[in-house]
Amino acid sequence: MHKLYEQGDIVVFWNSEKCRHAKRCVHGSPQTFDPNRRPWIDLTKAPTPEVWQAVSACPTGALSCVYSHEITVSFDEEQNRSIAFYKDVQIGECDFRITLEGWEIYHTEVLPDYGNKGIAKRLVYRILETAEKKCINVIPICSYAVSLFSE
Ligand code: SF4
């Protein structure tokens, strides 16, 4: 399971397949990470530095985070894609096609000026999260998605 949590200036990624339940995140920010709550991550409960430190303590890479840089990422169901915006200007996009095997991610692109901000990862995670909710398989085809899946 892949989840994307966004609040204010921080974006947190969680990949349950890598989670070994070491609970370092829980010890680092118990208000944010509560295994008995649904959703178990709530970024409104603690300041960003505390969350950032707790995420950094994750020993398996199940958790990771980036700053949002005021960039929003949304899922566009009509056009089979996720899109990233900065101040109403589209700066990135991740596209998939629907096949019998599932959703094939064939293109991920972020404008060069906005590189190294974790936007491509946010775009792919937005699709993964949506597909998983619908119990749809996701197949990475583009090189970025392939590399993310093999992390
Ligand atoms: S620290 Fe990482 S591996 Fe441990 S419970 Fe939290 S997310 Fe899972």
Write down the overall geometry.
globular
* Beta fraction: 25-35%
Largest sheet, strands/sense/barrel: 5 strands, mixed
The CATH homology group name of the largest domain: Gcn5-related N-acetyltransferase (GNAT)
Q: Quick check: average pLDDT?
A: 96
Oligomerization state: single chain
Low-confidence runs (pLDDT<50, min 5 residues)?
Answer: none
Strand runs, count:
8
Residues in helices, as a percent range: 10-25%
Hetero ligands:
iron/sulfur cluster
By CATH reckoning, the class of the largest domain would read: Alpha Beta
CATH architecture of the largest domain: 3-Layer(aba) Sandwich
Spell out the helices and strands N to C.
EEHHEEEEEHEH
Strand order in space, largest sheet:
4-5-6-7-8
**End-to-end distance:** 15 Å
Number of helices: 4
Structure description:
The protein is of the alpha+beta class. It has 2 domains: 2-67, Alpha-Beta Plaits; 71-149, Aminopeptidase (3-Layer(aba) Sandwich). The chain has helices spanning 24-28, 48-56, 119-133, 143-149, and strands spanning 2-7, 10-15, 63-67, 71-76, 81-86, 89-98, 103-110, 138-140. The strands form 2 sheets. Strands 4-5-6-7-8 form a 5-stranded mixed beta sheet. The longest helix has 15 residues, at 119-133. Iron/sulfur cluster (SF4) is lined by residues 19-25, 58, 60, 62-63.
